[in-house]
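Hey L., structure's done. Input below.
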Amino acid sequence: MIQTLNAALVGYGFAGQTFHAPFLTTTPGLSLGWVVSRDAAKVEADLPGCRVGSLAEVLADPSVDLVVIATPNDTHAPIARQALLAGKHVVIDKPFALDLAEAKALVELAGKQRRLLSIFHNRRWDGDFLTVRRLLAEGALGQVAQFESHFDRYRPQVRQRWREAGGPGSGLWFDLGPHILDQALKLFGQPDWLQADLAQQRPGALTDDYFHVVLGYGERYGEMRVVLHGSCLVSATMPRFVIHGSEGSFIKFGMDVQEDQLKLGKRPPAVDWGVDSEPGQLSRIRDGQFQQQTVVGEAGNYGAYYSGVCAAIKGEGENPVPASEALAVMALLDLARDSHQQGKQLACQNLSD
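Output:
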């Protein structure tokens, strides 16, 4: 039985440095030995003793068990294919491919190679999302009629980075859409239809910086609507979640704190790790009286993802985000682009088959 898994991180930009390296170096049973990066000095300053080399060197090293891919979106699938063919287990940052066909090919290859392929949908472990899951599981809101998930920012200037450069896999929808699509699918499953509006609103924008996507759920959810919204031009404080149901409403302001903690250099298991400082508000009518209740949020825990990956590779647990499960996210990313281009509502039947 493998005691410690040896990992290699491909890419040391924002995602690799902020979201992956901290957990690859703090998760029990994992050891980060390699980083593939063009900035060796930065890696060596942050991760003393970690080797910096090429992808070819990493894939040729028989001691490497797990390859984690945190590179620009258009390189995810090609690098993952090479790693799987080299016999490595693979974690890919979201979205794990540029389209559904490319994603399906990777899932098929991972099956043939008998290697774990997992997608880093880390926001399943956001504290606010865990709180929402708990409230819905408890039936606190009754039958949900309207669910809004906002991921808004104020970034009025277009920056020179690949996410905004207009190339394949760029844009706000491909950046933030996978997060909130995955959360919606975990809560409610596949919708019956989707309608999407994508736009380039900032001067000089080369790719979408606004999205408004509506997921429609029919009879099984009483004609529920799920609204997914993101923009780069929101300077006001907007709620992260707005949920209305037959028994009440829940409104939550503030983003999960883990990203900010990671940027500040905090690492789990800090005492206040993932602790939400902005409780949500639950409003209900009971016996004809309006009642409002503060809901203390669950603590976020991104580390649970890598603990799950480690256990799955060792045969001690399930893959925390199987790539086969993430195919549904890829399908809806594709369908939203089609809906926007055609300017109409599109059906969602059997999208990932």
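The mean pLDDT is 95. The first strand starts at residue 5 and ends at 10.

-- N.
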